[in-house]
Amino acid sequence: MSSRRRVVPGVHPYDGPAGGWGALKATAIAVRTQMDALDAPATLLRTNQPDGFDCPGCAWPDKEHKSTFQFCENGAKAVTWEATSKRVTAEFLAANTVTSLLARSDFELEGYGRLTQPLAYDKASDTLRPVSWEAAFARIGAILRTLQPHEVEFYTSGRASNEAAFLFQLFAREYGTNNFPDCSNMCHESTSVGLPQSIGIGKGTVSLDDFDKTELVISIGHNPGTNHPRMMGTLHELARRGVPIIVFNPLKERALERFADPQNVIEMATYSSTNIASTYFQVKAGGDAAALKGIAKALLQLEAEQGKVLDRAFIDEHTLGFTDFAQDLQATQWQDIERESGLTRGDLERVAAAYAKSHATIITYGMGITQHNKGTANVRLIADLLLMRGNIGKPGAGICPLRGHSNVQGNRTVGITEKPSPQFLANLQRVFGFTPPQEHGHDAVKALQAMIEGESKALLCLGGNFAVAMPDSERAFPAMRGLDLSVHIGTKLNRSHLLVAKETIILPCLGRTELDLQETGRQSITVEDSMSMVHASSGKLKPGSPELRSEPAIVAGMAMATLTESKINWLALVADYDRIRDLIEQTIPGFDHYNQRIRHPGGFRMPLPPTERIWPTPTGKAMFSVFDGVHENQQVEGHEVMRLVTLRSHDQYNTTIYAMDDRYRGVFGRRDVLFMNEQDMAELGFEHGDRVDIRSALPGHHQRLDDITLVAYNIAPGTVAAYYPEANVLVPLDYLDKESGTPSYKSAPVRLTLRSKEIRALTALR
């Protein structure tokens, strides 16, 4: 840091590695502030164990259970946040109006603790009041029966289990709609659309075993230390055995620089750490496609000079479209690649040389790839790069999209999609005896647009924080208030619950850590991780309230109250989740012997034909694609235009904020910051600590976020970054990937204006 920088309260360097003693301290604080000290150790030790519960955090898979400790810092935060001893009581709600609660921060709202009973909004008192389950279900059913199916949106969070999600889609489709906005629409929908076009399936192709065999990892657009922290153990192992890890990311992220494994006795005892990235390239926000095309172009040049760089036999036997792909690369100019990526030709040629040397390469990527105007094309471009050297369908190689929530991939597998295949719908009709709707429904953006325009009148949320997670908050929040009905299934209060409709009902559910007892006894649920492994999860804790119900039971209750002539025996399904899984097996390929296989430790893997070099594309081949030009987002001219990246703090998971710190980036006790390159600051007349107003630079748009503190940071020139979800207001609803509908949270053009040179004190934020 420059010695001339002003002192900004709550902003100072963090010198430690990711993980290490800092992670242990943060875990201890989470336990101390949320749980009974006697309950916490046993609860954490059950996390990700064969007879325990799956971590409600990220979707990184579990390795063989060789360690007693199968959780990370952020996993511990997720568990303790759910297993908290704090409760939202009827007395608390009676004393606090919805209007007053809306003035609290998102951190404060969830920090009040677990919901304990069904609630309904009372307009006269502006409060949430307890209501019986029977009354809640009856009111939901009565309203839904007055609406047309296309007027209702069924939203799903990625934390919902396979069983709950399957029942939810069954309820919606028997009701008559394919309106399924879900959290995947906001993150990896570009993967779900792009990869089937390239390799025939919208999932990654690697397993943890492949990481044991790989010779090179290229990491693009993700921050594993915060967003998928259990991955750090894998990267740590790779780095220690000398496998190159080449990173492309606009910000320098501590976990990608160095990491101390809390389970490594030597590192902990000596306060040492392991360097993770062998090479770190700070690509501009929105410059990934240019960088990928540069690597591919350099690879073609190596082939021309040396030969035997491309896997010609693989390309000839297994792919189509290579000639057009290669011609486009040859026509792409290096000056355009360098300008858009912010990297030099030499940088990208070095990556190409390392790639050419490796016999088995894995490319991992996150939302830094998917959340752009051409996010789907970005995903295809990564697949193209792997196909050039036959790096799909062989040991130690493949494509690895890094999913967020722990069952976001499983939700899609069991039918949460607005675009169901004809075969899936035919299977539903065969198994359940009703005719499901054939027309495609709404994704998340289309659902919100329909709500804004008054075409959708009800929103049923299986978890999540829909309005806060969506872009364009200034339009999303009023749309929630204009609904006839909003229903939220959840464990804690959040802002979306408080954006009350004409009628709002909140239904409290069991958490994943809690014991689920139904008529036939203790139940387990299942989830699918980001490497397509399906395994069981069984909570052990006493439920936070005797009135809590499981997600499957709540979905069934709503369905029975709505579908008075349903063909489905909902009560029987809730009594024994094995029966739900039997029906999933009958409906969806790949779930053969479902109940038997989940009883084996580790579960089973869903079919992934590309791992056997079988390509379920229309041509039966893997397909190369052509990325038009080098720009992955709408271009807005002007030297003062910055590209805004929205990102999570380290004490955050999606919209859930565990604390107000972002330790690795050196921010403590505040979230009102905009990270900016110090040279960009100087050129635009700003300095560290200035307070600025941020405006959308997109023509015809007027989104704004005011009074944000500038923080000098090691970030690519032309790029700024602010916290999600606060900065979502700056992303217009129509600024998205038109192929997948994914909002472009990772490169929104903005302009900054000085608001004040006066440094804001931390006390002013409270």
Automatic annotation (TrEMBL):
Pfam family, one: Molybdopterin
CC annotations in GO: membrane; oxidoreductase complex
UniProt feature coiled coil, ranges: none
Alphabetical GO biological process terms: cellular respiration
Cofactor: [4Fe-4S] cluster; Mo-bis(molybdopterin guanine dinucleotide)
GO molecular function terms listed in the Swiss-Prot or TrEMBL record: 4 iron, 4 sulfur cluster binding; formate dehydrogenase (NAD+) activity; molybdenum ion binding; molybdopterin cofactor binding
Tagged with keyword Metal-binding: yes
Domain Molybdopterin oxidoreductase: 114-487
Family that this chain belongs to: Belongs to the prokaryotic molybdopterin-containing oxidoreductase family.
Keyword Iron-sulfur part of the UniProt annotation: yes
Keywords in alphabetical order: 4Fe-4S, Iron, Iron-sulfur, Metal-binding, Molybdenum, Oxidoreductase
Protein name, entry field: FdhF/YdeP family oxidoreductase
Lineage: Bacteria, Pseudomonadati, Pseudomonadota, Gammaproteobacteria, Enterobacterales
Domain Molybdopterin dinucleotide-binding intervals: 642-748
